[in-house]
Amino acid sequence: MLVVQKYGGTSVGSIERIKAVARRVVETKRAGHDVVVVVSAMAGETDKLISMAQEISEEPPEREMDLLLSSGERVSAALLAMAINELGYRAMSFTGRQVGIITDTSHTKAKIERVTAERVKDALKEGVIPVVAGFQGISETSDVTTLGRGGSDLTAVAVAAALGADLCEIYTDVEGVFTADPNIVPEAKKLERITYEEMLEMASLGAKVLQTRSVEFAMKYNVPLVVRSSFTDRPGTLVIKEDRDMEKVMVSGVAHDKNQTKITILSVPDRPGIAAKLFRRIADANIVVDMIVQNISSDGRSTDISFTVPKADRDKAVRITEEVASELDAKGVSVDDNIAKVSIVGVGMKTHSGVAAKMFETLAREGINIMMISTSEIKVSCVIDVKYTELAVRVLHEAFGLDR
Ligand code: ADP
Ligand code: ASP
Ligand code: MG
């Protein structure tokens, strides 16, 4: 069997942890499997690099950010390769470039275009364990790129797809995918299995246990995915295609996301082309907008448009919105950083009614005001005041019987 194992930041967070990972990798090899390892930067390293850059510049050039950030993963890859060698097995570390992870040029959130994996294949042929630095690639113009926060998950899935691996194991600091973040809801239950669709919603709604794009990629290329702990030997959560049984459960999980900002452009004319103009400019800046709400004002001639963007893009988005506001003669722009999005997810929603109503009632009972709502076939999301996040997650978890 060919297995790709990805170890997250906490799993390689210290020299002791790196040695423990080396032992786990060697065990897999001893069991007769071929193994390719993908690593994240040691816990906290990426944040440290970002804050160093911010001490120098408010908006550092993204090309430079990428070279900087890619260094964290190189450190852990090299150290892990040394630790495996120390155990008497041959290992070699590789950067994204060496693995042939070719991306587009959108720095700090580059998209993978193809993976050649030549060096990895060669290493495997010679019985060497390849250790790949996650989170990074190389553009056609030979610039180092990174794949967005949590991007080592994507590296692992993409390498697994390129190699046709039998399994991609994501090792992290929790025992799998839970019904809610186990660090917030102690009653959360580990899911034995979850569908790609549900996992995709959970991830994009803030459950950072898997990076959203890694799930998208796994779904597209049918990469069998397991999320499990590097601290125990328990089996973890299998991410798989939907089967009939899974629709019996109405709600599979609750997710939350504190990483968004709400921007409102006030009192713009109510005529065709306004939203088009605003969101074209935002999209051209490579910013992904999440929720959008438009209200007609009482006079019927102007409207407010509110939308949310990731905190990382906040300043850029506000600047663009202010420019558009002045071009459109809008009354102004208001920004709310103190919001959170709570969501319920489940493929069973397709066949059950009253799920959204129950969610709203549950929040209302706690006196939590809902600022924005969005729904899809398998999720309902509400934007609320950030100070109620934990409370909202806990009461929703209970209301939908997820702790039973
Ligand atoms: P790694 O460094 O291994 O990539 P992350 O910090 O990116 O780990 O992801 C693991 C974290 O995801 C957990 O510690 C947990 O707090 C969080 N998390 C959020 N939602 C969930 C969920 N539904 N199930 C499991 N973990 C979750
Ligand atoms: N080190 C990167 C991050 O912190 C990528 C990853 O850990 O997956 O976002
Ligand atoms: Mg992660």
- Give the termini distance in whole angstroms: 36 Å
Shape annotation: globular
In total, how many beta strands?
20
Count of helical stretches: 12
Enumerate the strands of the largest sheet in spatial order, edge to edge or round the barrel.
3-6-2-1-9-11-12-10
**Corresponding CATH architecture of the domain at 2-173:** 3-Layer(aba) Sandwich
Biggest sheet character: 8 strands, mixed
- Helix-strand category: alpha/beta
CATH superfamily of the domain at 2-173: Acetylglutamate kinase-like
- The CATH class of the domain at 2-173, by name, is Alpha Beta
The CATH topology name of the domain at 2-173 reads Carbamate kinase
Bound ligands, named by name, code or SMILES: adenosine-5'-diphosphate, aspartic acid, magnesium ion
Tell me the radius of gyration: 22 Å
Query: Which ranges are low-confidence, i.e. pLDDT below 50, for 5 or more consecutive residues?
Result: none
Q: Which quaternary structure do these chains form?
A: single chain
| Mean pLDDT reading | 95
Q: How much strand?
A: 25-35%
Topology:
Elements: E1 2-7, H1 15-30, E2 34-39, H2 45-56, H3 62-86, E3 91-94, H4 96-99, E4 101-103, E5 112-115, H5 118-125, E6 129-133, E7 136-139, E8 144-146, H6 152-163, E9 167-172, E10 193-195, H7 196-204, H8 212-220, E11 225-229, E12 237-240, E13 253-257, E14 260-269, H9 274-284, E15 292-296, E16 302-310, H10 314-328, E17 332-336, E18 339-345, H11 355-365, E19 372-376, E20 379-385, H12 389-399
Parallel strand pairs: 1-2, 1-9, 2-6, 3-6, 4-7, 9-11, 10-12
Antiparallel strand pairs: 4-5, 7-8, 11-12, 13-18, 14-16, 14-17, 15-16, 18-20, 19-20
The structure holds adenosine-5'-diphosphate (ADP), aspartic acid (ASP) and magnesium ion.
